[in-house]
């Protein structure tokens, strides 16, 4: 049985295998600790029997990545913005290869969306995905996300990213998900 719980400091030493695919970015330990300290409600991990980490998602209401060897699933992120730009941001959602196709990413994303919607009263949730990552884009579309804009050379100055968004209950008119007509550059982004 899968258990989803809040992330704790010890988990930083247990989740590397989830973060080892070429589409997942990794960060240094202080980055994860900052998010864990500032947005603990947005940091969750999925565990398999025997306390094996299966995956995670990170929103800048949930940010988190794997550094050591461990089967992990998690979500990590944060909330940011002002006015109608107040939103939850998914920094990452990652599931270990052996635990994929079990709806774990969907469960982790739903948890982040619920926190953004019900607790923080955000207007939308957004995330960035590599334009070449077709499986992830399709998954996010199935979860109700739309491509809001293309960010040129977002990933390491080389690959474009797609800013995908999902409107929450506070955005009754769904203004936050009306796509921009032109691509933007990273220096035009409102938030990191």
Highlighted features:
192 residues, eight-stranded mixed β-sheet, 3 helices, 8 strands, 18% helix, 33% strand, NatB_acetyltransferase_subunit, transferase, Acyl_CoA_acyltransferase, GNAT_dom, N-terminal acetyltransferase B complex catalytic subunit NAA20
Description of the structure:
The protein is α+β, with helices and mostly antiparallel strands and 192 residues long. Helix content is 18%, strand content 33%. It has three helices and eight strands. The chain has helices spanning 29-38, 104-119, 134-142, and strands at residues 3-6, 43-48, 52-62, 73-80, 87-95, 124-130, 146-155, 159-167. Strands 1, 2, 3, 4, 5, 6, 7 and 8 form an eight-stranded mixed β-sheet that branches. A hairpin with a 3-residue loop joins strand 2 (43-48) and strand 3. The N and C termini lie far apart (36 Å). Residues 16-21 and 53-72 have low confidence and may be disordered.
């Amino acid at each position: 049985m899968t258990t989803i719980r809040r992330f704790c400091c010890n988990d930083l030493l247990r989740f590397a295998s989830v973060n080892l695919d070429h589409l997942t970015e990794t960060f240094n330990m202080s980055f994860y600790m900052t998010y864990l300290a500032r947005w603990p409600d947005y940091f969750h991990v999925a565990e398999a029997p025997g306390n094996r980490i299966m995956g995670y998602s990170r929103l800048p209401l949930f940010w988190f990545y794997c550094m050591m060897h461990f089967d992990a699933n998690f979500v990590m992120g944060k909330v940011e913005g002002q006015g109608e730009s107040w939103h939850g941001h998914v920094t990452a959602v990652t599931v270990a290869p052996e635990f994929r196709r079990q709806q774990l990413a969907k469960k982790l994303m739903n948890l982040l969306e619920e926190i953004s919607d019900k607790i923080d009263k955000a207007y939308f949730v957004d995330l960035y995905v590599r334009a070449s990552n077709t499986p992830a884009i399709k998954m996010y579309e199935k979860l109700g996300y739309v491509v809001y804009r293309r960010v040129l050379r977002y990933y390491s100055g080389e690959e474009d990213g797609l800013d995908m968004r999902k409107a929450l209950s506070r955005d009754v008119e769904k203004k936050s998900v009306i796509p921009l007509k032109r691509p933007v550059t990273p220096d035009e982004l409102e938030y990191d």
